[in-house]
Specification:
This protein is of the alpha+beta class. It is built from ten helices and seven strands. The structure holds fe (ii) ion (2 copies). The site of one fe (ii) ion has 4 residues, from loops.
Length: about 325
Amino acid sequence: MKKIFVKELEKGEFEDIFIVNRIKKKERKDGGFFYELYISDKTGEMKGYVFDNIAEFEKKLKEGVYQVKGEARELYGEIVFTLKELKKARDVEIKDLFPSSPREIDRMVNNLENIITDIQNPHLKKLLDYFFNDPEIRENFINAPAAKKMHHAYIGGLLEHTLNVVEIAESLAESLSRMYSGLSKDILITGALLHDIGKIKTYEYRAGIDISDKGRLLDHVYFSLIMVQEKIDKISDFPENLKLRILHMIASHHGEKSMGALTEPMTEEALLLHFADYIDTLMFKFKRARENSKEGARWSEYQRDLQRFIFLGGEEE
Ligand SMILES: [Fe+2]
Ligand SMILES: [Fe+2]
């Protein structure tokens, strides 16, 4: 288990598991080379150097997770380290290395359990139990990010995003059910809980949260579909119509084919899921733009993924 974290590192020798990244080979003033690199974990990052045994390190210095031995010292008022040794890391806990959701994980898990308890339809309840009571899936779901960069890109991000989507979908359904009929709350919530489940197979953790080869080649919509299909097929009396409605929600949750949906939403539940998903993703991006802006700024920096600036308001003149 990891005991030493970057934020607490003081002068002296240390050895523990860290992410090694941003490796750069640099020229020395007196000829020859040295390496500059960073180690990081969930608490932050620290700059370091390799001055000795360059030829030795040259062969194995690659971005990744390692057991790092180093010596920290002060340089111009900042703590930096000299790399002494890199070893293969064992018993890596990704929670120790990557930043986590700002929301408390246990509370979110509790919330998830309450949502599942409220499902009335026995087939859907069984389906959700197959997912969230499976220790491996559960663990992966709790730890997964919702994206590499775009939104909720941290440990617990998928859980946080999923709970948001359920809540948004539920409140939309509540208002809409006073004006329109034809909505099944159980189907809506089940589809919302499972819409991004395939993301537990989409990411890998090396020097950062990254999309795996299979994730990039097949995408999370594919994984969500086959995972849900596989579990449904294990439930002998699962109604065919219900199966199609749930799979359709996953297939269409990105709303449009140009956005990665296989089909456009064709049921009320699929339509609401799509908008709930879209709202949460955009609200997250607005929030991030606000948080990354300087205090008192009237406008955010240009947000490339949103293709717009965000107006932050400020005091009325
Ligand atoms: Fe998605
Ligand atoms: Fe989503």
